[in-house]
Write a structure and sequence with these properties.
alpha+beta; Deoxyribonuclease I, Chain A; 7-stranded mixed β-sheet
């Protein structure tokens, strides 16, 4: 009788611990996969130039630049992202992604910019239903030459469990009506702790556009870190990029940067738009002291008579009480005259960002 009792207890224990052991093995195996698969893309001194052109911009002529974080074409107004407190992890479908692409292309055609800088443009990502967004934009915008660089290439994220985010290959894309002579990817610093698995990889691209008269317009496209422990890494990223910009400006070239800073460019967006965002590391004020001595100026798009934010917190579907902030803008050297800048109010129709626009001219 005692032997049978011990055998029964052993069977019960095995029925409990074997499944627990299997689950633990799966979890540890997955963590090992993520750590092993994690990698950084690195510097790329020669990016492919798609649809090359030979036209050059002139000095003392007004041009328009549009910068837009398109949120991998998933952030329709009803979308909330799981890493921001929402429930969404992927676009609804490939058809929905293509519908957003069509909307963005229509917007670009309406605004008709000479330069278009996009961020979060995906290729082969589960979150974008494996739609090659870069190729789709290339096909829809034949008047432009372009370059693309991978911002991060992440392993499969098995969360949320019901509809995992999956693997993501996303990048930044620069379009120009003028010829791009050369383009490169420059790696940015990221956190060294396990936070690197959340914030992944980061870079900026440098596109060199010959200007009539012999100088060069140097275009910087960037998407700085958001999901960091304290926001300091984004400052280090800015320091590296600003040092690069200063070298180009000191050489007499025209410098323009545009993208997603993940910093409060207005310094008090919570006050302006009526909702506090102090709890978000990416919502900290832009460190203007970094600009001292660089010859580079920050251009933050803002109309005090009609303030429009460039970004909403995607903790759920868009609503008027949601935290809003302006984190998208421009950097220019002293030989670039800015005529105007604004946030194009799409009411977040195609992304958790609104595009930002700047008109400028290159000084003779």
């Amino acid at each position: 009788m005692e032997t049978k009792t011990r055998s029964k207890k052993k069977t019960i224990l095995l029925s409990i611990f074997i499944p627990l052991g299997l689950i633990l093995a799966l979890v540890l195996g997955y963590l090992a996969y993520v750590l092993i698969a994690y990698h950084r893309v690195g510097d790329q001194p020669e990016l492919e130039i798609v649809n090359p052109k030979t036209e050059s911009p002139a000095t003392a002529t007004e041009y328009k630049l549009l910068s837009y974080n398109i949120g991998f074409c998933a952030y329709t107004p009803d979308f909330g992202f799981f890493m921001d407190g929402g429930k969404g992890s992927r676009a609804k479908s490939a058809a929905a992604v293509r519908e957003v692409i069509d909307g963005i292309v229509a917007l670009v055609n309406t605004e008709n910019p000479d330069l278009l800088l996009l961020q979060e443009v995906d290729k082969r990502s589960q979150r974008a239903c494996k739609v090659d967004e870069a190729a789709a934009f290339d096909a829809a915008l034949p008047a432009y030459t372009s370059v693309y660089a991978i911002n991060w290439d992440s392993p499969y994220l098995f969360f949320p469990f019901v509809k995992p985010h999956g693997a993501a290959l996303t990048g930044i894309k620069t379009y120009s009506r003028f010829g791009i002579a050369a383009a490169s990817r420059v790696e940015l610093p990221v956190e060294k702790s396990l936070m690197k698995l959340v914030d992944l990889d980061r870079c900026y691209t440098v596109s060199r556009v010959p200007v009539e008269g012999g100088k060069t317009l140097v275009l910087y496209n960037f998407h700085l870190s958001a999901y960091t422990s304290d926001g300091k890494i984004a400052v280090e990223q800015l320091e590296l990029m600003l040092a690069d910009m200063k070298r180009e400006a000191d050489a007499g070239n025209y410098v323009i940067g545009a993208g997603d800073f993940n910093k409060d460019l207005l310094g008090n967006s919570g006050e302006i738009f009526g909702v506090s965002g102090e709890e978000y590391t990416w919502a900290q004020p832009f460190p203007t002291e970094l600009l001292e001595g660089t010859g580079i100026t920050l251009v933050a798009p803002y109309d005090p008579s009609n303030p429009v934010a460039s970004c909403r917190n995607a903790d759920g579907p868009y609503n008027p009480d949601q935290f809003r902030i302006t984190i998208d803008g421009f950097l220019v050297s002293g030989n670039v005259t800015v005529t105007s800048s604004r946030v194009v109010d799409t009411e977040f129709a195609y992304s958790d960002h609104n595009p930002v626009e700047m008109t400028f001219s290159l000084n003779p």
